[in-house]
Amino acid sequence: MNLALKEMTYYKLKYALVAAIIFLLAFLVLFVSSLAQGLGKDNISFIEHMNGKYFVVSEDADNNLLNAPLHPDDVKVLKDNQIPLVQMQPIKVQNNDKFLLTTISNIHALPKNGEIALDLHMSKNYKVNDQLNVVDNKEALKIAQFDKYQMYSHMSVGLVNQDTYQKIVPQNAINTAILTEDMLKDEVKVKDLKAQLKHSKIITPEDAMKAIPSYEAEQMPLNLMVFFLFLISAIVITVFFYIITIQKTTEYGILKAIGTSHKKLIVKLIQEVFIIVMLSVGLAIAVIMAINNFLPPTMPFYLNTNLIFILAGLFLFVAFIGVLLSIIKVLKIDPIEAIGGE
Prior knowledge:
- This protein is an alpha+beta fold.
- It is built from 13 helices and ten strands.
- α1 packs across α10, α2 packs antiparallel against α11 and α10 packs antiparallel against α11.
- The protein is elongated, with a radius of gyration of 29 Å.
- The two termini are about 35 Å apart.
């Protein structure tokens, strides 16, 4: 470590330059990844919020919860089995604002009559206790609270109880049903339920997420950007350390001539990479966390702690892969040739 620190101090401008480049790349990776996560949450957070292990949807729905209602015969089967049913209907209120009015049966933690729990995105134009006047309807809704991550297909979800929902949307169309983990413990009941559902199918939350048109369309290009940023990072680290190794061929030759082992030289290179990458990535994480505290709630930005650790680990992995070429070069250096001997 002492040798690595001395060399980095001596060539501080060169190492500071590569550290700055890695910082910018790490910042971009974290920002784009958090943006992708935020856009994903704007699409799928309500599916996660329902906490279902599986969902029942119509065979004609293409796995999309809004496409087609469940058949009345299947609804009767689900009601008989006390499966939570979900009703969803886009509605418009004053200021031309839209949201997805939703209710879930057999769920006790729903707002009182005439009240609604909205996603935090709606707090831009409204506050708690404000009245929402439904267009083409005499009913008004009082905002009881704002909840985070209650979105479906970039539309805020407004949760109400069943009585309130029926007053605004009189039709009895059921969009989906939720199968929780507790229900799935009874294998006989699940097998019997599948046999009774003649016009519906059971899908996973992942299937429901992929059926949202904007979800994969947004995630694919952003994830591709992250991949190429990692690729650029690997190239930058490889080129930098390889060039600096070539420039220091004579120094490495002298170190070998006085008896410095290959192991010590390789450890020095790895230590340099570790210090630079950890400092750069650590600073990028600190900056992105600071920025996250000042972003408005409507900004599609989600900082996932697990993702941060994964990305930091990937940067280290990419850096160590990049330094392999320099290690091979160091191992091939002949001390006599390096110091100009014959």
